[in-house]
Write a structure and sequence with these properties.
alpha/beta, signal, six-stranded mixed beta sheet, D-Maltodextrin-Binding Protein, domain 2, 12 helices
Length: about 300
């Protein structure tokens, strides 16, 4: 039912975050400011060294230039891509750093706007200039937005340590699967649910949550048998809950992830693509990914509306 791909490389990369968290905690023992005392904030990429690129800035639509801001729709609950630091109010993560760096290159300041995941795409072009929130590119989403693909990531199944409910990813009938509402994994699970019913097998129950953190909690608490999420997200959950979670080897092959702009907004599409291209060429893009231990999601060049 599902293709298999190795997720081990993601886990090794994200495991590096755990050691950084410990280092940050030790450093915080003495007097320090809030940034030094919060390892997640301290680990964030320093975007102050990212400079405006005049050629990129020239492509930014005048209406956006006048505001001086790049409004970015983000669901800040999808660690390590975007989540709130220990202070409960500071958005951090590799896509937060990426968004801030993108805005700087465009000659703007990033305005990170937290929203429920499934509400972001419908509001791109009205409330947000761009959506950067772990969006997997698919045909359904491309009906309403254009994508600039900037990364690749797969999907993984995650269970409690030891797989106590004996989850078999080739047959999820009779199991409870938790995931975040609106993610690309949801229709995949819906199809699996239909297959169970068609085969007169035990029903597959989908537990869909507006926030990824709630989906993870459902797994940890035992309310769900298995979680289905982007591999970097699943890996980070395992790191943040040592000895409690593990990733099963079966996962969906990697697919493009992209920044979303309003469908048909050619000017914004060109500006955002040029900005991301600049970050890739300058090395900032890979530096940000390395900071968060997810360099395995990197691609060499952007692709507009890739075939999926």
């Amino acid at each position: 039912m599902f293709k298999s791909t190795k997720s081990t490389k993601y886990i090794k990369s994200i495991a590096a975050i755990a050691s950084l968290v410990l280092i940050g905690s030790v450093a915080a023992c003495g007097p320090a400011d809030s940034k030094a005392s919060d390892p997640d904030i301290a680990r964030s990429y320093d975007v102050s060294k990212v400079q405006k690129d005049d050629a990129v800035a020239a492509l930014v639509p005048e209406a956006v230039k006048k505001t001086g801001e790049l409004t970015v729709g983000v669901n800040v609950s999808y660690a390590p891509a975007e989540f709130f630091a220990a202070d409960g109010k500071t958005p951090v993560g590799y896509e937060i750093d990426f968004s801030k760096a993108l805005a700087k290159v465009m000659g703007l300041n990033a305005k990170i706007m937290h929203a429920q995941f499934d509400s972001i795409i419908p509001a791109i072009g009205s409330k947000y200039n761009v959506g950067i929130s772990g969006f997997t590119v698919n045909a359904e989403r491309m009906k309403s937005v254009d994508f600039i693909a900037y990364a690749n990531a797969g999907l993984s199944f995650e269970v409690r340590k030891g797989n106590p409910t004996k989850v078999d990813t080739k047959n999820l009938c009779g199991k409870k699967v938790t995931l975040e509402t609106g993610t690309v994994g949801e229709p995949i699970m819906e199809e699996a649910k239909k297959q169970c019913a068609a085969n007169n097998d035990k029903p597959l129950e989908i537990m869909s949550f507006k926030e990824q953190t709630d989906a993870t909690t459902a797994l940890l608490s035992g309310r769900a048998d298995v979680m289905y999420a982007d591999t970097p997200v699943a890996g980070y959950a395992a790191v943040k809950n040592p000895g409690k979670l593990e990733i099963l080897e079966n996962s969906k092959d990697s697919e493009p992830m992209g920044a979303a702009v309003k469908k048909g907004d050619t000017a914004m599409l060109k500006a955002v693509k040029a900005g991301i291209d600049k970050l890739m060429k300058s090395g900032v893009y890979k530096e940000i990914l390395k900071k968060w231990g997810v360099e395995d999601v990197a691609i060499e060049k952007t692709v507009v509306n890739p075939q999926v």
